[in-house]
């Protein structure tokens, strides 16, 4: 079974450009109040479950956001949102697939 090897958040809430490496097993996110811990979980939910919807999570003053998940099996899942685009980019086995998002359904489900 694969696991999330890294998470990269660009212009997602308080994260302008954050990259987090993860190991297999339990991961704990610690830090002071209001420093972006919940935003990391929200970013994961956005990529995997299409929640939250809308654009309120794009960093104030920015035009787009992107969250990238690198899986331990080499698959890369990128979710992008701006005023016009709302899509996934899936990279696996040297192939790239672009999927447009419907507001109600995640193409990963």
From TrEMBL:
Q: Which domain of life is it from?
A: Bacteria
Q: Name one GO biological process term.
A: double-strand break repair
- One Gene Ontology molecular-function label: ATP hydrolysis activity
Describe the location of the Rad50/SbcC-type AAA domain by residue ranges: 6-96
Subunit comment: Heterodimer of SbcC and SbcD.
Family statement drawn from the similarity comment of this UniProt entry: Belongs to the SMC family. SbcC subfamily.
- Provide the protein name: Nuclease SbcCD subunit C
Q: What is the lineage of its organism?
A: Bacteria, Bacillati, Bacillota, Clostridia, Thermosediminibacterales
């Amino acid at each position: 079974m694969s696991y999330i090897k890294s998470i990269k958040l660009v212009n997602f809430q308080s994260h302008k450009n954050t990259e987090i490496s993860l190991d297999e097993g339990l991961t704990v996110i610690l830090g002071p109040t209001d420093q972006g811990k919940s935003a990391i979980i929200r970013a994961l939910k956005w990529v995997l479950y299409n929640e939250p919807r809308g654009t309120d999570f794009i960093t104030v003053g920015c035009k787009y956001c992107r969250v990238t998940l690198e899986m331990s099996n080499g698959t890369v899942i990128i979710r992008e949102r701006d005023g016009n685009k709302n899509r996934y980019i899936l990279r696996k086995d040297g192939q790239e697939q672009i999927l447009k998002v419907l507001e109600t359904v995640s193409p990963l489900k």
